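[09:14] KT: can someone run the structure on this one? pasting the chain below
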Amino acid sequence: LTQLMESGGGSVQAGGSLRLTCEASGDIYSRNCMGWFRQVPGKEREGVAIFCDGTGETRYGDFVKGRFTISQEPGNSRVYLAMYNLEPEDTATYYCAAKSSYGAALLPKLYNYWGQGTQVTVSS
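[09:31] RB: done, structure tokens below
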């Protein structure tokens, strides 16, 4: 089992930056891949960025376009999402997620563990 807790959300103006943090605890082998998803009310949850420990595989959603960077501490004990040049369209609840299997997939259904989410609001 793994427990995840996000922090770092907030409100910024367009063009601003935020860094999200996901604290992980529990079985290290249940979180070989960790990453971030986001969701807006009425829309499906979408993958933002995934990192797989051990293989180093990383994947970003197409909309990221080089603006976000995912990083982690050894053993995926803490995973970060640095977001730059934020746009109003980035407004969403951001969730940390983890799975034991390898493969940096951006499909929410593949992830077993989820945090409670942290709100990011970008104003124009």
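[09:33] KT: thanks! The mean pLDDT is 95.
[09:34] RB: yep, looked fine to me
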